[in-house]
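User: tokens in, sequence out, please.
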């Protein structure tokens, strides 16, 4: 329903009241949290995909509330819906591990890591919206994209904030992962370590060029897109070499 509200203006329909575009996703998030809390043990790809969908909607609401960037929902809404659908297709009932296999620190590690990935996805979305808006302005086309997308400056700020907040979140997730592995004795395979460290490195690079080298605008947008693409491609490569649904990777 929330996705339909966001997409309605692009279809030429009347825009829903702003309060409604905020309230409906929040209600859906509440139901989603209740569903996630009932997953015991919290193991496998499906619960993680469901959590990622939850965080994407949360960031969509935050983007609308703080930046009036309702256009973010053009990406996050369908993506979150697709992730939940894929999670249901895989099966949200975990199998194979006892309830003691995921302690609170392990679940915290997964939660923080997924939140960091959601922030990276938001940076990618803001970058994509920026480039689309920039292309429309350069071509002097003042159609729906120009009217419904946030200004370039606001999209650049959203991209910047997503990266700056996402990097310490991913860092904490990586540190918790090492803590779970070496202090808690939980099983963490090589693929998880490789993907976690690569995500941390490329996200650190993206933050570095923005904060240290003061990249902004199109250069920063391309950097965010390249970072997200690298993380996604490495994930697919690792998943193909080590398939399975019982890990969050």
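Assistant: Sequence out:
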């Amino acid at each position: 329903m929330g996705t339909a509200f966001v997409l309605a203006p692009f279809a030429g329909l009347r825009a829903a009241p702003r309060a409604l575009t905020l309230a409906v996703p929040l209600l859906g998030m509440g139901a989603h949290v209740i569903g996630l809390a009932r997953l015991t043990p919290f193991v496998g790809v499906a619960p993680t995909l469901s959590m990622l969908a939850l965080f994407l909607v949360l960031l969509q609401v935050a983007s609308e509330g703080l930046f009036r960037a309702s256009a973010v929902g053009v990406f996050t809404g369908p993506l979150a819906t697709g992730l939940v659908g894929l999670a249901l297709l895989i099966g949200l009932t975990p199998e194979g591990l006892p309830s003691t296999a995921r302690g609170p620190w392990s679940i915290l590690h997964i939660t923080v890591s997924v939140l960091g990935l959601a922030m990276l996805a938001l940076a990618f979305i803001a970058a994509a919206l920026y480039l689309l808006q920039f292309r429309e302005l350069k071509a002097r086309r003042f159609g729906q994209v120009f009217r419904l997308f946030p200004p370039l400056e606001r999209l650049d700020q959203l991209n910047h904030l997503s990266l700056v907040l996402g990097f310490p979140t991913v860092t904490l997730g990586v540190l918790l992962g090492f803590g779970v592995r070496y202090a808690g004795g939980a099983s963490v395979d090589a693929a998880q370590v490789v993907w976690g460290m690569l995500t941390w490195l490329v996200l650190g690079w993206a933050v570095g060029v923005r904060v240290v080298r003061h990249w902004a605008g199109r250069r920063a947008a391309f950097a965010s897109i390249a970072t997200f693409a690298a993380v996604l491609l490495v994930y697919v490569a690792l998943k193909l070499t080590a398939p399975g649904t019982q890990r969050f990777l």
